[in-house]
Amino acid sequence: MKPSYFLALGLSALASNTWANTWLEVGAEFQDYTNGRANANIEYIAGAWEQNGLTVYGDVTRSDRFEKVDSQFTLGGYIPVTPTGKLHLETKLSPSRNLTPGHVLYAGYYWDAGHGWTFEPSYQVTSFSNLRVERTALVTEKYTGPWRLVYQIANVSLRNENALNHQVRADYFWNDIDRTGVFYAFGDDQEVVENDPSAISTTSVKAYGVTGMHTISGPWLLTYTLSQTKQGDFFTQTGVRLGLRRNF
């Protein structure tokens, strides 16, 4: 049983607005698994730089899951192309390719439609050691007062088998920086059957959690995510992620 493609393809990507400002963050995540599976540990360094509407962001992540160690490098950016639109490009590379995909290519278009509405359609290709997974998605945001409401729908295609996934999210902004949010994701995970590589099995997956960012002192902030993911009858994952961020 490999890790869920549902998780690997980034349905928790709405956890933070990566192009909000210029910042640097270090942190770690601990994941507890049921059904006798080994716990996992993840460490990361992430950051973003913004100037004149252009944003570049990235991270370096090291993960130790199921007794396999992986490193992954992310580089992305938002490039202004119109007064209300930005091209969103991202790539991920993993030299180890144990449980993480070898590379990921993402392209989206972020559109500020006015009146608090934004939309981002996107296309993503994820390459594992012997698999190619395609994903099309649409993220819809609505800002109203101190609230940010988000809905994402995504179709994931693995060997011509399709699975539909959803995520809903609500963030409450205490001020321009501090916020608290909750999210819920549900859909199907696709898995190649080990004894029959030509067959695809589908498992229902649900995930929910609480996330936030709060000022500690001056430019220093604490970021956190508490989450739980249930992948059918295979396992339940409980995760705690903490980060220390400095805004510039």
Biggest β-sheet strands, sense, barrel:
14 strands, antiparallel, barrel
**SSE order:** HEEEEEEEEEEEEEE
Structural class: mainly beta
Gyration radius (Cα, Å) is 18 Å
Q: State the domain count.
A: 1
**Shape, please?**
globular
Descriptive terms for the model:
single chain, 248 residues, mainly beta, Porin, 14-stranded antiparallel barrel, 1 helix, 2% helix, disordered N terminus
Describe it for me?
The chain is mainly beta and 248 residues long. It has one domain (5-247): Porin (Beta Barrel). Helices cover 2% and strands 73% of the residues. It contains 1 helix and 14 strands. It has one helix spanning 5-8; strands at 23-33, 40-51, 54-65, 68-82, 85-93, 103-114, 117-127, 132-144, 147-158, 161-173, 179-193, 196-217, 220-231, 235-247. A 14-stranded antiparallel barrel has the order 1-2-3-4-5-6-7-8-9-10-11-12-13-14. β11 (179-193) and β12 (196-217) form a beta hairpin. The longest helix has 4 residues, at 5-8. Residues 1-19 have low confidence and may be disordered.
